[in-house]
Write a structure and sequence with these properties.
Length: about 240
């Protein structure tokens, strides 16, 4: 018995389409780095890239490895990369996801891992270059160009778990200007983080002046601090390049 021609043609077209789709889509997973938590538990960051129709789709995977095997704890498609980064200095690094390392600033998501129960959870989002814990705050660095850097200070409400307020309490800006003779002058200011009505404030204490600096030819140089009421003072100890 002869079979109808149309179903056969359809089957051939379907097979060709499937084969072409496989050829057009190519995926590769690479392990970027890993970190050992204790003696028997480690986390690994893996980057999965799939190229299809000229587009690159990236998924960042976090895998937990124990003596009994491994499992995927997290898979994020909104970010291009991740790294282990110890924000609070407790020797248990957090995982810092970034949507674009190729630019000076990117959108970050910070996840905290608990080796005790194998859980992972997001604790903070921020935009900028990096973030650190300092004097009861999470402070994010932002690069605004070669002549200006800024930072935002988010008050920690739970220091142990790195839970902070979603809006910054204040901002720090250090900017460099050039005078008529070609000399460089750096000015620094602390201000409330209110875009509608930003007010100059004094640093919470002298330790905060480490954010008042710029990098000159001879290394980090201190800035002139303009405080509350326009009071001007000189910062004597620029922060290191950390």
């Amino acid at each position: 018995m002869r079979r109808p021609l149309l179903p056969c043609v359809f089957a051939i077209l379907l097979a060709v389409t499937f084969t072409a789709s496989q050829a057009a889509s190519k995926c590769e997973t690479k392990e970027k780095s890993s970190h050992l938590y204790g003696n028997r538990t480690s986390l690994a960051i893996l980057i999965n890239e799939c190229i299809s129709d000229g587009l690159v789709n990236v998924t960042v995977l976090i895998k937990e490895r124990r003596s009994g095997g491994e499992k995927t704890l997290l898979a994020l498609a909104d970010y291009f990369d991740a790294r282990f980064y110890d924000i609070d200095g407790d020797d248990v690094p957090e995982i810092d996801f970034c949507d674009n390392w190729s630019t000076a600033n990117c959108s970050h998501a910070i996840y905290k891992y608990s080796p005790a129960n194998g859980s992972i959870r997001k604790v903070f989002n921020f935009d900028g270059t990096s973030i650190n814990k300092f004097k009861g705050y999470l402070v994010s660095d932002i690069k605004n160009g070669a002549a200006e850097r800024s930072a935002q200070a988010f008050k920690l409400v739970d220091e142990r778990n790195l839970i902070a307020e979603s809006r910054p309490r204040f901002e720090i800006t250090a900017s460099v200007s050039q005078d008529e003779k070609g000399g460089l002058t750096c000015t620094c200011r602390f201000a409330t983080a209110d875009s509608a009505k930003s007010l100059l404030i004094d640093p919470p204490n002298a330790a905060w002046t480490k954010y008042c600096f710029f990098f000159g030819e001879s290394g980090p140089q201190s800035c002139q601090l303009t405080g509350k009421g326009g009071k001007v003072s000189r910062v004597s100890s620029p922060r290191s390049s950390d």
